[in-house]
Every structure is written in C-alpha cells, then in structure tokens.
Amino acid sequence: MAIVDVSAKTVRHVELFRKISTARRLDVWPFVCLYLLWIGLVFPSLETADGLIVLAGIGMLHILTMLCTVWSVDFRCFAHYQKAKDLKTAEFCKVVPEKYSGSKEVVPLLHRKLAQVQDKKAGGAGNLFLSSQLGATDEEVRFDFRKQTFVYSPEEGVFEKVGYPSKETFGTYMKCTGHASEARAEVAKEKWGPNVFDFPQPTFGKLFKEQCMEPFFVFQVFCVGLWCLDEYWYYSVFTLFMLLLFESTVVKSRIRTLMELRQVAVDKQSLLVYRGGKWVRLSGIALLPGDIVSLGRTTAQGSEERTVPADMLLLAGTVIANEALLTGESTPQWKVPVTGRDPTERLAVKRDKTHVLFGGTKILQHTPDKQTAHLKTPDNGCVAIVLRTGFNTSQGKLMRTILFSTERVTANNWESGLFIMFLVVFALMAAGYVLMKGLEDPNRSRYKLLLNCSLIITSVIPPELPMELSIAVNTSLIALARKGIYCTEPFRIPFGGKVDVCCFDKTGTLTTDDMEFRGVVEVETKELITESKKLPEMAASALAACHSLVFVDNKLVGDPLEKAAIKGAQWCYTSDERAFPKGQPRKSVQILHRFHFASHLKRMSVIVSVDPGSASSQGFLVLVKGAPETIQSRLVTLPAGYVEAYKQFTRQGSRVLALAYKHLPDMPIGELRSIERDDAESGLHFSGFAVFACPLRRDSASTLLELKDSSHELVMITGDQALTAVHVASQVHIVSRPVLVLTLGDDGSFSWISPDEAVQLPFRIEEVEQVASTYDLCVAGEGLAWLARQEALDVVIPRVQVYARVSPDQKEMILTTLKGCGRVTLMCGDGTNDVGALKQAHVGVALLNVSPPPKSSSIRTLETSSSHSPTSTLTGVDGRSAHSSGGVMLNDGANRRRRSQSSSSRGGGLAAAIGPQANGVVQRSGRSLAGSPELGQVIGGSSSTDANGAVVPLTPAELQRQRLLKKQEQLKAMMDEMDQLPTVKLGDASMASPFTAKHASVQPTLTIIKQGRCTLVTTMQMFKILGLNCLAMAYVLSVMSLDGVKVGDIQAMISGLFTAAFFLFISHAKPLTTLSPERPHAKIFSWYVMLSLMGQFAVHLTFLVMAVRQAEKHMPEECIDPDSEFTPNLVNTVSYTVNMMIQCATFAVNYVGHPFNQSVVENKPFFYALIAAAGFFTVLTSDTVRSLNDSLKLVPLPEGMGHQLLLMSAADLVVTYTIERLARWAFPSRVPSLSARRTRGHQASSVEKED
User: What percent of the chain has pLDDT over 90?
Assistant: First the structure.
C-alpha cells in the first residue's frame, strides 16, 4: 500500500514513506566512507597538493548530492526516506498533483485521535448534519497540502478533502440550532480549525536561502570561488557581491508582495453567534462550520464597514452584498433566505448563489425577517449558518490560487539549462585537452593546471548572465508599465512572443458593460417596437417591475440591463418597491414577492399588485422574464413564429429576453408569498421579447484583426447565448467563415447546425478535422460536458473558435486542454469568473475597467494647495487625478498623468539625488518646483515673468538652471514609474493573473505580444551570442594555456566592458508598432539556431586558427613556464585581438531587428557602440597609437600582419552574416497550421466581401 489515491481534482495520489535515520541517509554514509578512505589511503599515498585536490572533489560531490535533495523531491525521497507498507507505519507522504496543478511535495502524515464528545445533547435534532460531518470515528489519518486538509476514508480506501456542511438539504439547515455545547464546538474546531488565513510571513533569510539554492546560482558561486583562487580574485569578489545584491533585490520584491497578501485577513469584528442555546458575542476568527450567526450592516456612526467573515447560508432576512472582491463585478447582489425552498432539496453553492453570502464580501444593506426566522436575533440582524471557513471559503480558494501558482515561470527553465550544458560539453573537451597535455609535464603544478582548466569551464557561463537576462525583462517591464500594464511574474513576458492562441471573454472585455434597450418584439408582427408609449402594457410592466434592483444609500443599484429596461420603458421605480409610468395612462404596480434569478433556471419572476385604474379593479399578477427557450415550455399557448422571432434578433448579436405574465386570483398577501415558485411560473401568457444591445468597444475589432493578421488564432469564451456570441465573434473577426454550432437535438444526440439551420451535419469524432477545415465551430457548455464524457476534448477544442454558455470551470478546462495540445495561450478577461483560465494561460491578462489614458494632445494643469503640501496631483482636462486610478497612467505619447511631489518629500527628493547643486537651485528659486503653478510654461522656455507679470529674458545661467530642473523632473518621473506601481488588491481578477491592464480595452494584448516578441528575440540572440563567444573563448583559453599565455587583467576588463555594453544596448531595442505575421524563433534547440551557431563558430574557429598559426611562425622557439606570471607575447596579442573582433562581429551579425524590433541603425546606442568598438580594435590592430597598445599589454605585430587581420575580420563578418541570413531564410519560425489556414480563410472572405 505504498500508493494511495486521492479523491480531488488537483491531486492524483500520494506515496507513503518513513524517514530513515541520519546515519543511513544516502547523502551521509557513502561520503563518511569516502572521507575515511581518503584519510586512511588516499592522502598518505599522494602529495599534499594532489591529496587536497582529491578532498576538494569529494567535498564538492557531497555538496552537490545534498543540493540535489533540495532541487528534486524524488531524489530527496530516495535519499532520506524508505517506502512504507501501510498507513500505520507511514510518517510522510509524497503528494503527486495532477497536471498543471503544481509540483510534487513531501508533507507529514498526521495520525491523531479525535476528542470524544460527552455531551449527549450535541447530537440532538438541531445538529443532524453536524453529526454526519463529524462522524463516529475517534481516529483519523490526514495530511495538509497547499492549505487544504485531506483525510483518509477507510470505507473508500482513498484520501478525501475534509468535508464541510455545504451539501445538506434545506430542511436540515432550517432545523439547525448551531453547536449545542462548548464540547461540540471544540470537536468542530479540531476538525476544521480556526477561521483564519494562516500562512507565515517568510523572513528575508529564508527567502534569500531559497534564492541561493537555485541550481544556476549555485553554479555561479562555484565558478566565482574557483576564479578567486587565481589572480582574478578581486574581480571575482566584486562579481559575487553583485550577484548577492541582485538576489537580495529579488527577495525584497517577493517579501513586499507577500506582505501585501498578508493584509487580506478574516474580519475580526465581533458578531452574535448562537452557541450552547444562547446568543454570545464572538470574533469572526472564532466561527466554525455549523454556527448560527446574526449578520447585518453596522449603523453606528464611526463604525467599520462589515465584511462577511465566512461562507454562509442565509436562513432569514435579505441582504444586499457587494461581491466585487471576488467577482470583479461592481453590481451589488441581492441575497435572499432559503425559506420557500423544497426541504428535501440539497444545497448546491454554485447553483444557489442567491442564498449564499461569500466570505470577504461587504454587506451594503440588510432587512431582518422576524416572522419566518426560527431563531430571533437580539440585534435585528439576518440569520445565517456558517458553511465553510478559512482557506475553504470562496475567498480562501482565491487566496490559494494566488499563493500557489500552477506554473511559476523563472529564468531557470530547462531549455536554457540544457543549452548551458551543451556549451559546458565543449568547454570540458577543451579543458580535458589542456589537462591531458598538462599532465604529460611532470614539473607542472597540478594546482595551477586545475585553475587553468577552471578558467576554461567558467568562461562558458559569465556570472552576470542572470543580470543580463533580467535587463531584457526589466526593460519590457518598464515599457509595459508606461502603458498602464503591470506584471507580477516578469519572466512570463517572453511567453507573449510565443503565443499562438488568443482567448477573449466577451461581456466587459470585447463589449462594454453598458446595455442599450432597443425595444420589444411582438410575435404576430415580428416588428421591433421602440417607442415606449406603444409598448404592450404587460411587457412594459414586466420590464419595470421584474428585476432585482435595490436602493442603497438612496441610489438605485443593480444589473445594468435591468436599469436600461426601466429607462427604456419610461417608468419610475421607488424605494418602496413601486413602479409607475412616466406621463402614461397606465397602472402602476407594487412588488409583493420576488423569485430571484437562478442561473440553472434561467428565469426570474415577481408577484405584484396592480393599482386600481379608472376602469378596472385591483388584481395580482405574476410577471416573468427569462431565456426564450426556458419560457417557451411554460406558456399555455405557444405563439406561431415564437422561435423564429427570437432567433432573428440573437443572430444579430442582440440579447433577447422573453416576457410573460399570469393573473392570480384575489387572496391574502401571506398566501401570495407562500406560493411555490414552480406553480407561480407555469401556465404563463406571452407578452413579448425584450431586445437589448451590448455595443462593442471601439477598438476590439481592429485589435483582433491585427492579431489575426499576425498569425494568431482567435477564440471567444463567454457565458452568453451561442447565436449572440457567434454574431459578436463575426464582428471582431474571430469567425470569418460559415459557422456551425454543436447543438443537442430532440433525440438526445448532438449535431453541427448553422445559425440559420440551413446546414445540419451529424457529429462524428473522426470527421471533426474535415468539418473544421470548411467551417468555423461553436460549442456551448452542455456540448463541452458531453465531449468530456466522450473523451473527445483533445480533438475538438483546438479547432473551435467560439465557446458559449460556459462556466468558470469549463473556461479553465478549455485553457488546460489547449496547453495539453502544445499551444501557447493568452487569456484576456475582466472578472474573477475568469481567474482559473487566467492562471492556466501562459499569458493571463486581466482588464481593470478604467478609462484609457488620454491622448497626448490633452492639456495638463498642475494643481497644488501650497508649496508646503507633501503631495500634489497632476490633473487632466477630465478632472480626474492619478490617485483615482491607483497609480501612474501613461499613454503612448510623451504627455503623462503622474503623481508629483515637492522637493521636501522623500527626505530631500530628487534634488538630493542629483546633488547639492540642484538642491541649491531649488532653494534659491524661492519656491518648490512641485509647488510652481507655472511649471508647464517655465520648463523648456526661454523667458520668465517678474513680479509685475512682465516678460523678462532668461540669462544663460537661468537657462542652464531650467535644463537642470527639467532633468530633475524627468528623473523623478522615472522613479515614480518604478516606485509607485499600483499594488493589485483583492477584488481584481488580476490578483491571480500575471498581467494587469488598467484599460477598458483589449489593446493591451497587442502591447504585451509586441513586447513579448521583443523580449523573446532579445533573449534568444543573447543565448546565441553567449554560445558563440563562449565557444571561441574556450578555444582561445586552451591555446593560450598550452602555450603558457594568460589574459591580462586590463585585457579582461576591456573585454567585459564591451560585452556588458553590447548586452545592455541590445536589450533596449524597442518593438515595431505593427505585429508581423512572421514569428520569432521560440526554441534554442531548433535547426535555425543550431545550424547558424555551428556555421558561425566554424568560420570564427577558422579565423582563430589561421591567425594563431600565423603568430606562431613569428614566436621564438622558447619554452614559457605555464605557471609563471602574465607576460605579453605575440600569441596573446593576436588571440586577444582576434577574439575581440569575433565578439563584435557576433553581436552585429546576430542582432535581430525587423520585423520584430528596431534595426541596428534605428537602435542608436547599439549602433554607436558597434562603430566605437570597430574603431577601437582597428586602432589596436593597426598599432596606430602605440601607448594604447602598451597599456593593454599588447606587443607590436609583425609588419603587414595587422592589415591581414583586419581583412580576415572583414571576411569573417561577411561570411557569418551570410550564414545567419541563409539559416533564417531556410528555417523560418513555425506558424501553426490551423492558424495559417484560418488566416487564409479570413483573407479569402475579405476578398469575397470586396468583390
């Protein structure tokens, strides 16, 4: 029984282990034996130096073995544990998660006895579901994994998540009276724990240790340690300091992020809880599942806003809750009690959300119900029962999603590691050759020989490589931040360049949140009635009264569609739930009872009383609205043309609701409110179709067209109706061919049907590819569920363009399946319904619904209260400040909206950062820069005004002062951009998304892909340049080592400076403004990269060999001691000079410009650096300035050799450039075949439209 299955979506199984004693561990006893063997046999038989070298080798192998137990969970289990036969003997378990659900982890297996409940009253009638949850067993085996507890079930033979009372019958909840005794509460606390988010704050030392344990960093420190043993130890110590400083900044950033996350906590405000038969006041963190609580909005002046501390089921009273924290939706939700529900029906939280208050949401308003409540609350609150606490609430699930990212993208990916190993092989071959030749000389120092070999090996991986790669990523981070796009996982940026499938939510992402009421359609005429006075009376009454709108603080809030309906019908709605027409001779209605909208029913209804009119008596009505297909089956008589009428408008992209009514006989109000919902909503009469339009965002179509033209597949994933989704998809270029929708037929089988039902094809899994080659496909949620049961997802999902009526879990499943098929995905959404999909996508983009930054032509005005104000706000013509958006908002132009601070803030501000002279300028000016209302006119101007307002020409000194102040402002703006990036709070979907865009537009997806391609190209060319330089350097060092030649300290410094400068400048290349259909190469191990690399290396190696052999002809035949100090000679001079020429050629040839980035000439810093380097090495080679060559320890070249080397370097540049271009032409980047086919289909469709 070494493996036990786990009944959970995220965990596959666990493997049982026992920990072995320290002496028996594989990283202990073998090395103890080796150390004893070295002491007893090896050290006495070898010289001291050789013996110490052997000891160092054993020590390094020991350290590497111990580190492997950190890097690999499997190796740690192999070295530290032994497999257990059964649960009783097991002490630990290795948790193996499902694909895309995290990495393996070893956790303790807990065996414990549960406390016995002596109180017999605890199992009374009021605690029926608690008794079933707590169970009769007094012993259990459990483990905790990622803030979830799993308990072994002896009956099922599997581990299961700890059960919560969230699936009981409504009758059970209504009878529950909470925990009848403290003993019962203690048992519940032992099972479920306290209601807290208990994750520890990692210390700097712990996180720094984790960073330093990364394989790449360990290798770097090892290399630096070896270099310290040679004469380069000063440089090595400095490099180590830079590495530690770099890792420290990373750790500080992680700590800052975790501290923000730790601010999210359960509301600790006290509330009334029914415990032991009486109401007691407890803190929110003391709540337990099964507790009965009294909830309400605090009305006391100065009191804090009430937040729901756990997931609860509302038993009595109504609540208006703001769920923006979880859903991202600003519309308040109306929560109603479970009274009236079938007592035998079981609760389903996803289905019955209207009865559930979710943890972390805010209570805006509450109305107690003292008549139906079986427990009376002393504070007039609403009665609710706690369902889930802690990390198992909806808020806790979101927290777990944020804490445990499914795939953390870092620089240490397997492909870069494999490429480094590829280079190490060449370095080892060169070092092995040097070692073999060195061992042939019995007089050569073994210590020095080992150091020379280490120089060759460490030359493969420059210690500054992580910083060089980070420069490229950080440059992109700053560029994105300037456009209001913020990234929490920076190393996901290169994935933006690999994206081939772009998925979009519809409502609120491609379309606006604002709904427009178009009118009502009567079936008989099929005409759209737009004039409010001509609307059918029953249809107008349904539009005005059948809704869930509510007044909060004297403001009407709710669904934008329902508000648009009242406005379009020209009715008024008051806080006493009365609706009446504006200036129309119609009867008003009074709402008596609501049956709220239920997603599984797809309808809602209200019972209203009709005021007596001039010619009719008072009566009662049921007004109903819902999905047309749902209302259809509940009508007494189905009007002719019913289906054709609503499909006519859904095909146009409109949202259509069916309106119906039913007369009720006169009866007491109490009886009216006790009518069963199913009875009230049956036997209806049709009154019309309400038609609404949801306009597209202005740039959705153009943005998606550019994505499609740049060889990206486009997919829409929405919860809206299929025909509506298909129409919107056609408007934004997602579909461009005839569309087929997977539809369930009357016979229970699925088939492909066109929106106009002219084409019908039976669904056969083997014909999906053929159908997809001719049609664009749409699949609804019920079709997805059926495909999952048929195990056909992998075949269908990669070929579908539109998904409709899908749930959040299905959105996540779509992204997971696409990833499993090898696609690189982008998901763009705006609500927490999209969180799972945003996390599963390689590039998740969460849109925060704020206005985009104004155009560069906007006028700016600087407003400050006084020069002594600590902060001031830069405001645009729209009157909104940067504070309102939570951070810096920048547009594509040079104009910006940014936070401005006085020079006294931040302990001296930018003036202090620039220097005392700047500070003096500010002080002598007599006023603070930030406090100057004339800033926009003074900076950059050539005149000023005196006290009387006259224009006075500025002196040269004043002009210089203004230039300095302008530089100060620019520097301060850069610091603001870097230091004041907004922290994403709970309530934004972006908390679980790598990218957050402060735009009400999908335009940021283009920006991210452009910047991703730029970063990907830069990273790829960095690896290519690194490979070529390292291969050439390994050969140079091996040749020089055999001839006893070393690199001079100044030579190494010059080489490093040029390399660092080149890497810096190529990382600052900017992407082009238009996306190209051509893709950048995404893999290091591709035919293009490897053939180009090996071809260029062969040319460079030929150049090196020819130059070195030419130099050897002029060398005196004398032996140079390899262990002697550095001595300049001809081979050193030629090798160093040629290697520097090769480095310059490598950067110039492998720089990738168009069609992704700026060209070499457009990237001015890099272009000038190349010219400077070429000129510098031309001067060195031609020996034009002898003193310069002497300072670099370069000997004079024989006559004519300098010109010969320059000609050879020119030939090397031309040949390698030709090889690079030929390889790029012969092996272009792969474009997905499906994407190419659809692009061609789109282009063909466009041509047909033009014809």
Answer: 14
H-type alpha helices, 329-413: 394-403
Axis-axis angle for helices 215-228, 465-481 (nearest 10): 130
Better pLDDT: 137 or 219: 219
Give the whole-angstrom CA distance, residue 464 versus residue 861: 44
d(CA 1065, CA 1070) in angstroms, rounded, equals 11
* Distance, C-alpha 541 to centroid of its chain: 45
Q: How many domains are there within the chain?
A: 6
Phi-psi region of 750 (alpha: psi -120 to 50; beta: other; left: phi over 0): beta
pLDDT-wise least confident of 408-422, 487-501, 683-697, 1100-1114: 408-422
Domain boundary among 376, 405, 434: 405
Residue 460 is assigned to a structural domain of this protein = no
DSSP H helical ranges for 100-232:
128-134, 170-175, 182-192, 204-212, 215-228
Please give the single-letter amino acid code of residue 847. L
Q: Is the pLDDT of residue 895 over 90?
A: no
Mind telling me the catalytic residues?
A: 505
Q: What is the mean pLDDT of residues 556-570?
A: 86
For the CA atoms of the chain, what is the radius of gyration? 36
Hey, is 1237 helix, strand or coil?
helix
Mean pLDDT on 506-531: 83
- In terms of phi and psi (left: phi > 0; alpha: psi -120 to 50; beta: otherwise), the region of 1141 is alpha
**Which residue, 818, 847, 876, sits at the end of a domain?**
847
Phi, psi of 576 (to 5 degrees): -90, 20
Would you call the peptide bond into 1155 cis, given omega within 30 degrees of 0 as the criterion?
yes
- Pairing label, strands 995-997, 843-847: parallel
Per the DSSP assignment, residues forming a β-bridge with 871 are 901
Contact 721, 805 (CB under 8 A): yes
DSSP state of 997: E
Rounded to 5 degrees, what are φ and ψ at 292? -95, 125
Percentages helix, strand, coil for the chain, rounded to the nearest 5? 45, 20, 35
Phi, psi of 911 (to 5 degrees): -60, -40
752: domain CATH number is 3.40.50.1000
How far is CA 200 from each of CA 66, 102, 281, 881, rounded to the nearest angstrom?
26, 20, 28, 37
β-strand pairing of 356-357 with 713-717: unpaired
1032 and 1091 fall within a common domain: yes
Tell me, yes or no, if the pTM score tops 0.90: no
Give 656-702 pLDDT, tens digit per residue: 899 999 988 888 887 888 888 888 999 999 999 999 888 888 888 99
CATH number of the domain residue 1059 falls in: 1.20.1110.10
CA 402 – CA 268 distance, rounded (Å): 22
**Structure letter (DSSP) for residue 507:** I
* 289, 165 contact by CB (below 8 A): yes
Nearest to 134 by CA among 188, 76, 64, 201: 188
3-state secondary structure of 660: strand
Mean local confidence (pLDDT), 72-101: 87
pLDDT tens per residue, range 708-728:
988 899 999 988 788 888 988
Tell me: pLDDT of 847 over 90.
no
Report the distance separating Cα 536 and Cα 559, nearest Å. 23
Q: Are residues 1118 and 1183 in the same domain?
A: yes
Q: Where are the alpha helices (DSSP H) in 1151-1232?
A: 1164-1182, 1186-1191, 1201-1226
CA distance to 107, 744, 803, 1229, 1238, per residue, from 763 (Å): 47, 10, 17, 35, 21
Using the predicted structure, report yes or no on whether residue 963 has a pLDDT greater than 90. Answer: no
169-191 pLDDT per residue, tens: 888 898 888 888 888 888 888 88
Residues 6+ apart with CB under 8 A from 753: 740, 741, 743, 759, 760, 761
